[in-house]
Design goal:
Elements: E1 2-7, E2 10-16, E3 41-44, E4 70-73, E5 82-88, E6 93-94, E7 110-118, E8 122-128, E9 137-142, E10 146-153, H1 154-159, E11 174-188, E12 206-212, E13 216-217, E14 224-231, E15 236-245, E16 248-256, E17 262-264, E18 266-269, E19 273-278, E20 289-298, E21 311-324, E22 327-340, E23 349-351, H2 355-358, E24 361-362, E25 367-370, E26 379-382, E27 392-396, E28 402-404, E29 414-420, E30 429-434, E31 441-446, E32 449-452, E33 465-471, E34 480-485, E35 493-499, E36 502-506, E37 522-524, E38 533-536, E39 545-551, E40 554-557, E41 569-575, E42 584-589, E43 596-600, E44 606-609, E45 620-626, E46 635-640, E47 646-650, E48 656-659, E49 671-677, E50 686-691, E51 695-696, E52 698-702, E53 708-715, E54 727-732, E55 735-740, E56 755-760, E57 764-771, E58 777-784, E59 787-792, E60 797-805, E61 824-828, E62 832-835, E63 841-846, E64 850-855, E65 864-869, E66 879-883, E67 892-898, E68 901-902, E69 908-916, E70 925-932, E71 935-938, E72 946-952, E73 955-963, E74 972-981, E75 990-999, E76 1010-1018, E77 1025-1029, E78 1038-1039, ...
Parallel strand pairs: 13-22, 53-59, 60-66, 68-76, 78-88
Antiparallel strand pairs: 1-2, 1-3, 4-11, 5-11, 6-7, 7-10, 7-11, 8-9, 8-11, 12-14, 14-20, 15-19, 15-21, 16-17, 16-20, 18-19, 21-22, 23-52, 24-51, 25-26, 26-27, 27-28, 29-30, 30-31, 31-32, 33-34, 34-35, 35-36, 37-38, 38-39, 39-40, 41-42, 42-43, 43-44, 45-46, 46-47, 47-48, 49-50, 50-52, 53-56, ...
Organism: Chryseobacterium aquaticum subsp. greenlandense
Domain DUF7619: 1022-1157
Keywords: Signal
Length: 1256
Amino acid sequence: MKLDRFVNRNWVPVQTFSLNRLAAGDWVGKTNGNVSYPTVFRVTCSEGKKVSVFEGNWFETGSPGTSDMATMVSSESGTTAGKKFLTYIAPPGNETNVTNPLTGSKYNGSFSHLYLFSKTGATVTVKDALTNGTKFNKTFTITPEKYADCSISLNEWKAFYNGTGTASGPERPYLIVESNNDIAVMNSNFNDNWMCYTGSSLGHSFTQTGSVNDDTLIPTELPTVVSQVKTGGEVTNPSVEVIVQEGLKVVESKIINPNQSQTQGVVTELNDKTKVEYNNLPTLQPNSTYQIETKVVATVGANNGELVGTTLNSTVETVITGKVNGETQQSTIANSVSVQTTNTSKLIFSRLENPLFDSFTSNSWTISWVDINNDGYDDLYITDMGLTAPNRIFMNNTAGGFTAGQVLPEDGVSMSSTWADVDNDGDEDLLVLNNTRNPNRFYRNDNGTLVADNTKSFTQDVSYYHGGAFADYDNDNKADVFMCNYFPTKYNELHRNTNNGSFVKEVTDAIPLEANSSLGPTWADYDQDGLMDLFVPNGSGNKNSLFHNDGNGTFSKKNNIINQEGGKSVGSCWGDIDNDGDLDLFVTNSNTTTNFLYKNLGNGNFQKITNSIVNQGGSSHGCSFADIDNDGDLDLFVTNDRIRKFLYFNDGNGNFTENRDEAITYNFGLSFGHAWSDYDHDGDLDLAVATHSNQKNHIFINNGNTNKWLEINLKATESNGSAIGTKIFVETGSRTQMREVNSQSGFGGQSSYTQHFGLGNAATINTITVKWASGIIQKLTNVSANQILEIVEPQQTKVSGIVYFDTNNDGVKQDSEPTVSRAAIKVVPTNAKVYSSDAGTFSFYTTQNDVELRILEENGLSAGSKVFDLTNYQPSQKIFIAATSTCNDTDLKINMGGTAIRKGYTNNQFKIVVSNQSRNISNSSILKFTVPSSVNIISQSLPIAQQESFVENSKNYTRYSWSMGSLNPFNNKVISFMTGTDASVSVGDELDFKGEIVNSSADCNIDDNLLMQKYPIYGAIDPNDILVSPKGYGTEGYILPDQLLTYTIRFENVGNFATQNVSIIDNIPQELDINTFKMVSASHDNVSAEIIDNKITFKLENVFLPPTSVDSDRSQGYVTFSILPKKGLKEDTKIKNSAFIAFDDENLLKTNTVTNTIQSKAQEQEMTVVHLYPNPVNDVAFIRLEHRKGSEYTRKKIIKAEVIDVNGVLILEKNFSASEEVRIDLPLQIKGYYLLKVTDSDNKAYTKKMIVKFRE
């Protein structure tokens, strides 16, 4: 026989015994090294043998009269009820005053007991095991449904225990119980009834045995737990339940009937376990065998979605219930399984344990992989929102680990970052986007060293920047940048790279006219025209924005499904999920709104997918497409803030299934952004996830598989330095995959610029086609798999040309003939698309001797084409192509946009852009702008020519007019001003704005001359309440004179607009002592308290509370402080407190008033009562004085307690040092009713009736 204990995932031997039949062995912690193990023990024995085990942990000294135990005894068949038992008898307990319930007399000694219970009646013999009844032998006849008490006196116990009751000889105190019918046996040596157990004497009509084929598991392993049920008689109304604890997940559970038919169980996953239920089962037949097989899989986490991180001793418990002869019986068996949840070697991902990386916690929203020092290995950059916390760099040590990177100065409240080679010098430069406290920071990368350069146009302003992304949107081979503002009081920004890293802020296009609480932007050429388009997710109820690149640096919003949805969107990612050669879009939403998936139809339009598993929701933020399993299609990963993450595997056709087994799908932290890289160069993608609220960030290593792969590093020579916008097509047999290089994905996270392709079982790539952002097309053939391939952009012939109007139709460009700007030209056969500049020039790259140039029907030109022979073309030459205008008049267009209109503010920004879209000069036009009369405008950039008021549909309006003068072709004029509102508007009102451009001549397209927009009135509103603790009792809130009061002032933005700052003013009542003020806590870190006289002003700056409708958790806040009443306040003095709360510059809002009143001594005494426990009393009584309304309203202490009988005679008196609770021990002769009198330290007396139990 072996005794083992469980230590660190393994069974460790404790002791081994070699025992003959009815021989005993024992293990006592005190005598075996004086040890105490908080663990699980296991007892095993030779196959086919049976062991009786008695476990006790309340032996105290081990001497009679000191231990206190009770337990049901198992029969030799392992059941509660049976005919034969072998049981250990613990030292008899002191039962001098215990009444025998069968006789009514006292035991008057020390005894142990075997209580024998029979359902049907039985004859029972109890005898000592070693001598088979020579030293102890008693027989009992038990009538049906009665019990007998086999009491063992101290002398009887000693007689069969070596004559001494000690282990000095070979005997151990074991008794054998034998019965002719089934009985139940309870073993007890109670002193004072601490424990009691119950069992059934009903004989079992079915038995159950269990086994598991593997009891030590790691995640993904699939053991089968088998429970075999054997019936003796018929079992009616049977039900079976399998309960599986955390660490295991049910794959399948079934009952195999005697005829080999099968019944499947119903599986239900709960937060703390999984249940399998079998209901409505047919009657179990007698003398039959039923087998319950439950296949489970080991998991890395718990059912509630949390990662476990330790070894779990899980159980699979099978419970069978049924009726036998009308009586309910139940059998339970549990199989234990050890799950090593941290061993993830059979999963796709394992968490990287890195001492350096794990030594930091952060408040990080975003994370990026980028090769900072050009050694070919991606390094890691993590932003931190902490005001004084630095952003961190971890340099790849090329061996799977990291070293500490360059230490950068504190950048401020950093939200995200984006990297690109903005100066085309061969290394990636860094833009850090900050939230309000500091401007953005830019770092130029000088051969691996980051050098601060804050001269850029995008580092000059302070705003709530939330995301940014680089792309060459004007195809001049330099990376430009878009930045979004979360506050709708600020426009989004577009900055154009003018010359190797110098930028200028664009203000006239459609993009910087929006202010929509934007986050997580991404660039993508969704219509494959060679121009980077922009998607911007918008929150605060605004629809999302997909801007189409119209060429020459201009954008417009098309009427498609993407621009018709939004409101809660925060992140986005593009990928070709169905391998059809174009980019599909996934959008995350930050509330319970389901996430969006849009399939690209290939013609510039999209179809919303609504029947996919990816249409889930749950505070989603980051998202990314990546071929995680190298099977040749893009899978999808989504980070959710406070719940499990989403991992979806692609079937190759854009259909997804969810995986909930991987560690990355559990709730391992509060996470927004993430990024992918094969940072260890083993051919699979590894994952880095940022976590906020001072948690550890995570890196998950891809454990790999046997699928082939290819990774491509692009080295640009003509394109922008990071090759952003370049498309790579990898063709293997019938499958062609496409990747487009981007600088951002998801929620401010940047994955590696190295492009990863899973190839399945393809060992060779037939063709790699690279469509560089410059327009150069490059092909490679017969490329081997499983390599990191560097592709350098080749040198090709650069052809330059001019588009002109052939006014004399001779086909030759004359000096007098005007050039044509903004002509869209398609180059055949490469299908590259280029636009002519303002000077009419264009260029493209080719290796062809013959090309066809097609002028597309865009920007007021008719379609046309010409074929050119470039065999003898020289770079100094120019080719000419004639164009024809579709309209000889002017084409004026109006665009406008404003920041949020906040009630009470006069600095709401608004811009109107009038542009000439034609190729002719507009000599004159009038701009008209109509708004409700409750809106006023100030600080106009151009003087108002006319202002008029009118009434329409019973509403008052004001129309402002400006004379626009002449406007050259493709030029524009911008009018900017501030708007304000009067007191008649309310938060939530919606105002109609109308802009109209009136052309003095005929207009080629009047559809874009009029624009109608609606603007809601925003404001932050507070429910303003104040709480006090304790609030006191009664309507007056009575408290003690020296009661510490704790005030909590709560605020919540239930308006429709985020607020930046919150101010709270509390004019402390004169009854409170300002010198005892203490700040207890606050909802936000950056809170200050200023005290002037009795006035406390709390300021919470830059907290940026969103409206409740956007984020109910983050819309709330509070400050809590404590303060004492002044000493010496008179009884019944009232203390009334209230506060004022303001959001930004809104008016102060008053809270409710809370009242406390100083309690009088008389009130305190009147409300004080005696608390006695227990009552009735046995031998010991505990006494204290309590206030009827709560213990916090009195601090009375007891100095004396008296016990007085019904005749007024003092029976007992005890004096104490002043104590809040006292104890009195009652003499044995006291019994019946008494009066307890308690005196406090003020010599005030209180009484209570006391009942003392009858004792002997």
